[in-house]
């Protein structure tokens, strides 16, 4: 080795030009990014000062290029793996059974000392003072459990179940409901009877007697034969006794008037103006016609129409 080569090797330094490739740029770009720093930083901090991890500036976008360049899945599962449906159902059943057992133990343990019973007990069952929510809940549940057991142990006599309701008036006196109902029922029956009596009073006595007579005839008709002939004595007597106001032979076959009418009251025996219904005046009638003359005009118009009809027929026969 010559002297020039030795000096060049040991003491000379040559700066070779750097080759900037696209891959190099990607690396630089991957390392480069924008930094989010705290607003409170004044800029006078020294570089060799220890930086806390929580207060360190956040470097965003430093690994985005590497994340896009990779071919495998870089997502990482945080925490434990999700259990299957069967495992989840078994875990829920175990948790529910444990909670039920804990609740039953709290309710059944009557002899256990009161939790947080350092202060006076309030009406709700909880104790005054600083307590946790679980302690207050346990005290309220124990209070409800004791009240329910006491209520069931007293029986229906003390609770009033199945007893009759007592009603009182404004003054405080006890009202007998059965007697009041009986009085109301009796009052309703009396009102119904009065209404029926008023309706009956508006009807005539003769019509009432005729209705009773028809009812009696219907009752007797059950024992009569189906066919009735002209030689039936009872039917003939009924037809003879029936009075008709337009019967021309009635004046020759009129029987002696009885002392009483159909209603059982005394009947009027003197003359009177005829009417369409054949009703005789009462036995106290003084003979004065106080009507509006309609019955008289009715009979006059009826007779005039009949006379005109007969006269028209006679004229036709003369022709």
Question: In summary, what is this structure?
Answer:
The chain has 319 residues and is mainly alpha-helical.
Describe the protein in words.
With 319 residues, this protein is mainly alpha-helical. Helices cover 47% and strands 3% of the residues. The chain has helices spanning 3-11, 22-31, 64-69, 85-108, 133-154, 156-159, 177-201, 205-221, 233-241, 294-318; strands at residues 34-36, 58-60, 167-168, 174-175. The strands form 2 sheets. The chain has a two-stranded antiparallel ribbon with strand order 1-2. A two-stranded antiparallel ribbon has the order 3-4. A hairpin with a 5-residue loop joins β3 (167-168) and β4.
């Amino acid at each position: 080795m010559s002297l020039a080569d030795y000096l060049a090797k040991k003491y000379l330094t040559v700066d070779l030009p750097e080759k900037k490739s696209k891959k190099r740029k990607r690396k630089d770009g991957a390392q480069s990014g924008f930094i989010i720093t705290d607003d409170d930083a004044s800029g006078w901090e020294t570089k060799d000062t220890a930086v806390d991890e929580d207060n360190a500036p956040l470097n965003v976008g430093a690994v985005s290029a590497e994340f896009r360049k990779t071919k495998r899945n870089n997502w990482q599962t945080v925490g434990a793996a999700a259990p299957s449906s069967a495992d989840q159902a078994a875990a829920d059943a175990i948790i529910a059974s444990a909670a039920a057992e804990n609740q039953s133990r709290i309710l059944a343990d009557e002899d256990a000392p009161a939790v947080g019973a350092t202060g006076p007990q309030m009406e709700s069952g909880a104790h005054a003072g600083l307590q946790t929510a679980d302690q207050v809940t346990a005290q309220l549940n124990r209070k409800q459990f004791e009240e329910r057991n006491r209520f069931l142990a007293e029986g229906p006599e003390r609770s009033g179940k199945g007893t009759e309701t007592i009603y009182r008036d404004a003054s405080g006196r006890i009202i007998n409901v059965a007697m009041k109902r009986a009085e109301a029922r009796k009052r309703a029956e009396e009102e119904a009877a009065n209404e029926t009596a008023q309706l009956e009073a508006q009807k005539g006595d003769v019509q009432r007697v005729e209705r009773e007579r028809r009812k009696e005839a219907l009752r007797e008709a059950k024992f009569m034969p189906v066919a009735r002939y002209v030689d039936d004595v009872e039917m003939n007597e009924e037809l003879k006794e029936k009075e008709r106001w337009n019967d021309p032979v009635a004046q020759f076959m009129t029987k002696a008037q009885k002392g009483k009418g159909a209603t059982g009251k005394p009947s009027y025996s003197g003359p009177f103006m005829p009417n369409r219904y054949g009703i005789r005046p009462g036995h106290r009638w003084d003979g004065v016609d106080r009507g509006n003359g309609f019955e008289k005009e009715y009979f006059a118009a009826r007779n005039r129409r009949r006379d005109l009809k007969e006269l028209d027929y006679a004229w036709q026969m003369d022709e």
